[in-house]
Amino acid sequence: MPYHLNMFKSDAGDPSNTRNRILSTALGMFRERGVEAVTMREISKAAGVALGSAYYYFPSKEAIVSAYYEHVQDTHHRLVTEQALKTPLLSERMKILFHTKFDVIQHDKKLLGTIFKYAGEPEHPLSVLGAGTMNIQERGLETIRLVLKDQKLPEDTEKLLVLGLWALQMVFIMHFIYDETENQHTTREMIDQTLDLVAQVLNLSTFPMLRPMIQPFLEQVLTIVQKSQVGPRLNR
């Protein structure tokens, strides 16, 4: 089953729209030079708008990257909605979840390499693990919950799976950034193999005879995870 959408490019929309033109121009410059090396003045000049107009739509470069995060999340959620619910198989749904994510960011390896370095700075507004991107993190969890819809998993298992898949996405995005194989084939192959294992473990965890032995362990892990100060919160 093909999951790749190679024709997709993460552009910013209609270039005739001032906001989108600024966003598209800025992202292009970020991809080439990195976020820190580009100034708002350079962005406004390249976009053909006044500096004040650029600041009107985006108060800072961080606001531009935040808009990129939102664009990626919105596009990913739409693709998952269109494709994942067509199959009842959880293993296939999870693969669609991951592969469509990489289809969306296919052309942004250099940009992601630039902004992912902020992950180690909890207070930075662009940290993918910090409070500044909590809204995007929560929306990512919603997309994962969509994949698990109607799967009838035990509540504790589903909660752990949601956060586990989110964390796994972060790990594979890092691998994706460094993957030089065509269409990031190595990363995608690793994803399929990993998710097949996850599906097998899930089948065991829901087996009636094993459930009484596994449930206390899951409850303890869930308690530990809920204390974490990194990444999204399991608040429901």
Automatic annotation (TrEMBL):
InterPro entries: DNA-bd_HTH_TetR-type_CS (IPR023772), Homeodomain-like_sf (IPR009057), HTH-type_TetR-like_transc_reg (IPR050109), HTH_TetR (IPR001647), Tet_transcr_reg_TetR-rel_C_sf (IPR036271), TetR_C_23 (IPR041673)
Entry keyword annotation includes Coiled coil: no
DNA-binding region, residue range(s): 39-58
Keyword Oxidoreductase: no
Any one GO MF annotation of this record: transcription cis-regulatory region binding
Keyword terms of this UniProt record: DNA-binding, Transcription, Transcription regulation
Entry-linked Pfam families: TetR_C_23, TetR_N
Residues of the HTH tetR-type domain: 16-76
Name of the featured protein: TetR family transcriptional regulator
